[in-house]
Amino acid sequence: MKNKLSAIVLVLVVLALAGCGRKQTPGTVRVILDWTPNTNHTGLYVALEKGYYKEEGLEVEILQPPEDGAMVLVAAGNAEFAVGFQESLGPALAQDSAPLPVTAVAAIISHNTSGIISLKQAGILSPRDLSGKRYASWETPLVTEIIRTIVEDDGGDFGSIKMIPNFATDAFSALATDVDAIWIYYAWDGIAAEINGVGINYLDLGQINSNFDFYTPVLVTNDKYAAAKPDEVKKFLRATSRGYTFAIENPADAGAILLKHAPELDRDLVISSQEYLASRYQADAPRWGEIDPKRWAAFYGWMFDKGLLGKDIRNQGFTNQYLP
Q1: Whole-angstrom distance, CA of residue 13 vs CA of residue 28
Q2: Phi and psi torsions of 59, nearest 5°
Q3: 239 φ, ψ (degrees, to nearest 5)
Q4: Torsion angle of the four alpha carbons 247, 251, 252, 255, in this order, in degrees rounded to the nearest 10
Q5: Measuring CA to CA, which residue among 86, 77, 41, 78 is closest to residue 62?
Q6: What Rg do the C-alpha atoms of the chain give, in angstroms?
Q7: Are the beta carbons of 173 and 185 closer than 8 angstroms?
Q8: 49 alpha-carbon distance from chain centroid
Q9: Measuring CA to CA, how many Å separate 284 from each of 114, 168, 295, 300?
Q10: Of all residues in the chain, what percent carry a pLDDT higher than 90?
């Protein structure tokens, strides 16, 4: 983890230096995605396509990221917003020196929709069934500790699990080769399994342990930018909220807009994923984007207790003040 954080800091410095002289064009807001376009991003494309940003006087550019680089670019001032994750934001904020100057300003999906998927024949019906199985690991302390926690809390033997380094982007190719279980976002890979008739078992992390009902993904912004232009942040989030609200109420039409901007995506997967997410973008939150302080703090408190954060930041790193 320390090596990874050092690398992040180094990249931040390099990018900050490289970005010297690049100023934000007045009225232009740059948003960097976390990954290639998918249904987590639909509200952004809807707001762009339907002119909600223009109505706020904003020209918005939606950009694809370098690997693991979106939040770093925002921290360096080379973009105004990025799609990030509470789980990766914590270590970036809890550094003793040079914490990233970014804050989460909206939850894109109100509850954690990620979990552990396996093929039916692997017989993994509960966390303890991972004992003796091969798990596709991203080799991060956080993932290892989450798997250890859910398995041991369920009476399983974490030590018997073979943690196999695996960074496959296709979960089903990984499951068909050298692993028995892998972490996915259900809205994409889980829905893909459904529409392709692949028999799976799924362990929902947020249902297994409430500490793991964290916010993933979120929108983050640069602290200096937000302090200097709070009204622009509010305008951006007002338009973005309208985009996600449209996606909630019109999943098929919202999917068609995403496909217009990302025609390489599978149409059936996009539409089915939109229908799955329509009731989950906001879910039980009082408004789209709102972050529950208790749920945010519970996850960072757990990370701190497990030694995954260098300092206790359970009440830091987010704000709801810019939401409409």
Answers
A1: 24
A2: -105, 115
A3: -70, -40
A4: 50
A5: 41
A6: 19
A7: no
A8: 23
A9: 18, 33, 13, 21
A10: 81
* Residue type for position 163: M
Look up residue 84 and give its DSSP letter: E
Q: What amino acid occupies position 21?
A: G
At 169-226, the pLDDT tens digits run 788 878 888 899 999 999 999 999 999 999 999 999 999 999 999 999 999 999 999 9
CB–CB of 276/93 below 8 Å? Answer: no
Check residue 283 and give its pLDDT.
97
Task: Look up residue 198 and give its amino acid.
Answer: V
Return the residue matching tokens 């973009």: 79
Question: What span, in angstroms and rounded, lies between the C-alpha atoms of 222 and 72?
Answer: 10
Tens digit of pLDDT for each residue in 88-130? 999 999 988 889 999 999 999 999 999 999 999 999 999 999 9
CB atoms within 10 A of CB 209: 18
Phi, psi of 318 (to 5 degrees): -145, 165
Residues 254 and 46 sit within 8 Å (Cβ to Cβ): yes
Structure tokens that stand for 63 in this block: 């950009």
Do 86 and 106 meet the contact criterion of CB atoms below 8 Å apart? no
Q: Is the pLDDT of residue 321 over 60?
A: yes
* Cis previous bond, 263, omega within 30: no
Write the burial class of residue 160 (CB in 10 Å: 0-12 exposed, 13-18 middle, 19+ buried): exposed
What is d(CA 106, CA 41) in angstroms, rounded to the nearest whole number? 13
Task: Provide the H-helix boundaries in the chain.
Answer: 2-18, 42-49, 52-55, 70-75, 86-93, 141-153, 171-175, 191-195, 205-208, 223-228, 230-249, 251-261, 267-277, 293-305
